[in-house]
Design a protein that fits this description.
The protein is of the alpha/beta class. The chain has 2 domains: 186 residues, Response regulator (Rossmann fold, 3-Layer(aba) Sandwich), CATH 3.40.50; 258 residues, 3-Layer(aba) Sandwich (Rossmann fold). The protein is 37% helix and 14% strand. It is built from 20 helices and 14 strands. Strands 8-9-7-10-6-11-12-13-14 form a 9-stranded mixed beta sheet, with helices on both faces. A 5-stranded parallel beta sheet has the order 2-1-3-4-5, sandwiched between helices. Helix 14 runs parallel beside helix 15. The C terminus is likely disordered.
Length: 486
């Protein structure tokens, strides 16, 4: 945080005005022209007790998208989707300490909820009562963490005064985010001049706090982050891998989006078979050297199935026990997000530490189940786990597969869905001929199936994942139709 200047900054505050804490120095993670633009619009005037703030709203300020410059290049086919944010993956907080000083009970609750979020797992977050005044008192005797979030509901002059006191105790490099109840441009500008990293207007929810933290530490020169969609079967044999591979093909062909499939079923993965590929290198090579992975190495390890679809194939052999650390799976999954807008994680039907971490870290989760009791029990366990561990994320999507299999008793779809309490459901009909022919030919059902109902369901799932509007003919409600949308 920048300390307030009065007289000689070097003599009174103990630092050189030209060093990285001077007013002219920008936060390295903020858009380079943002503060300069603010200074040009409204030259600094010291605040006095009779200062009258402008009545304009913070909503009139430029958006973060308008302030971004030198954004990394993305494939041309995905430029529009990235511009709308429909394929952007979730950012994560770095390994830092975060102290939150709250005045409102709902802000404290939001802070506690944010601290438990998957995007904040690497950060150590402490929530304290008392607001900005308590922070000033606390740091008179304690060192400051990398990030302080303080709430102050007092009038602007009191807020500025307390911030000036806090600045006297802030360590070099400490960032400060202020929460207030004044939606005012003049206050915002004054806080920016004093080195505050961000100003948020209460009331806040957990996602707003998470976004403020992750955006503050986001490197604008870093590669784009694609979205991870994890596919998991409620039990073995329900077709989770088949749905995952066909969905990836739909995203790449019908949605025209670059997509990568990562087959984490190391001994029995079928991605190579389904796409008629037998690569020499694959995901095991990446897992054996996750620290060395970069864009060039990953491109060499992947096999390109089409212009927009790449495959990180599993070896599908029993020559090894595959005793790989959970951190390696997590590292490969994270680094693969920089390779394409959509990364499909094909997860095996097992339970291990790495499986849990990869599943909970994905941007979206799709559960594939058959309409039977074992699928219902296991799917409910997965849904309950995701709801508890990912309280700020949308619930998982459910694919009810193999519906209407001849001679097999089935749990009615309404009862199955009601028991899970999910709202985004795709129902896929049993079609042994279509799926069998595609599997034996090393093709996707879209390549052999024409206008089957299964293709309609997969197209709808692709539209939901891609966050694009479904076609006008799609039915949006009713379990009697092929699918239900939300």
């Amino acid at each position: 945080m920048i300390k307030p200047q009065s007289g000689s900054a070097e003599a009174e505050d103990g630092f050189n005005p030209d060093d990285e804490f001077s007013v002219d120095t920008l936060d390295p993670w903020r858009a380079p022209d943002a503060l300069a633009r603010i200074e040009d619009e409204d030259p600094f005037q010291p605040l006095g007790d009779d200062h009258a703030f402008e009545t304009a709203s913070l909503d009139d300020l430029p958006t973060s998208a308008e302030l971004e410059r030198d954004a990394p290049a993305v494939p041309a086919a995905d430029a529009a989707a990235f511009a709308s944010g429909s394929v952007a993956g979730d950012l994560s907080a770095p390994r830092i300490g975060i102290h939150i000083f709250c005045e409102r009970p709902d802000t404290a609750a939001a802070g506690d909820l944010a601290a438990k979020d998957r995007r904040m797992t690497r950060a150590t977050t402490v929530v304290r009562p008392g607001g900005l005044a308590a922070a000033v008192e606390h740091y008179q005797t304690q060192p400051t963490p990398p990030l302080i979030i303080v709430e102050c509901l007092d009038k602007a002059q009191v807020l500025i005064g307390l911030l000036d006191q806090l600045a006297e105790h802030c360590d070099a490099g400490t960032k400060v985010v202020v929460i207030g109840d004044h939606n005012d441009i003049a206050l915002y500008r004054e806080l920016m001049r004093r080195g505050v990293s961000e100003y948020l207007v209460a009331p806040l929810n957990a996602l707003q706090l998470i976004h403020a933290v992750t955006t503050l530490y986001a490197d604008p020169s870093a590669a784009f982050i694609g979205r991870q969609i994890a596919f998991v079967g409620a039990r073995g044999g329900v077709g989770s891998s088949t749905i995952a591979h066909n969905l990836a093909h739909m995203l790449s062909e019908r949605m025209q989006s670059s997509t990568v499939i990562v087959d984490f079923d190391l001994p029995f993965g079928t991605a190579g078979l389904d796409f008629n590929q037998d690569p020499l290198q694959g995901v095991v090579d990446a897992l054996s050297q996750p620290d060395r992975l970069d864009a060039v190495l990953m491109d060499r390890m992947m096999v390109r199935c089409s212009d927009r679809l790449s495959l990180f194939a599993a070896p599908a052999t029993l020559d090894s026990d595959y005793d790989i650390a959970a951190e390696a799976f997590e590292e490969v999954a994270t680094k693969t997000r920089t390779t394409a807008p959509f990364v499909i994680l094909d997860l095996p039907h097992l339970w291990a530490n790495w499986m849990r971490r990869v599943l909970l870290g994905a941007d979206e989760v799709v559960i594939t189940a058959a309409p039977d009791l074992a699928s219902l029990r296991n799917a409910k366990n997965i849904v309950d786990l995701l709801r508890q561990a990912r309280p700020n994320d949308q619930p998982p999507r459910l694919v009810l597969n193999q519906m209407g299999m001849p001679g097999r008793p089935e749990i009615p779809a309404k009862d199955f869905i009601a028991a899970l309490g999910v709202e985004s459901v795709i129902m896929m009909p049993f079609d042994a001929k279509l799926f069998g022919q595609a599997a034996n030919n090393g093709q996707m059902i879209d390549e052999v199936g024409g206008k089957s109902k299964a293709i309609e369901g997969l197209t709808t799932l692709a539209q939901l994942i891609a966050r694009r509007d479904p076609p006008p003919t799609a039915k949006k409600s009713g379990l009697s139709s092929l699918f239900k949308l939300k």
